[in-house]
Write a structure and sequence with these properties.
Elements lengths: L2 H31 L6 H37 L1
Helix pairs in contact: 1-2
């Protein structure tokens, strides 16, 4: 596998992780403010989503920055 493919995978993984963390945050906030009869699975999922959105965001930014740096570094060679 070429290194340019690895750089793209790292970049897009970071981008997708950032989008996932935003969706997790929105789902957690939506379930936090809603009222009604929800299943235990949905309640637990919203708790985990609200708890882990920030680590996913940080990991996404780290992977995104690593992908950009590797792409710039390889293009300068």
């Amino acid at each position: 596998m070429k290194t340019s493919h690895i750089n793209r995978y790292i970049f897009f993984t970071g981008l997708i992780t950032i989008v996932l963390s935003v969706l997790m945050f929105l789902f957690g906030i939506q379930m936090f403010t809603s009222s009604g009869n929800f299943s235990k699975f949905t309640i637990k999922l919203s708790e985990f989503s609200f708890g882990f959105w920030l680590p996913f965001l940080i990991i996404g930014f780290i992977l995104l920055i690593i992908g950009i740096i590797l792409t710039i570094y390889k293009s300068n060679k």
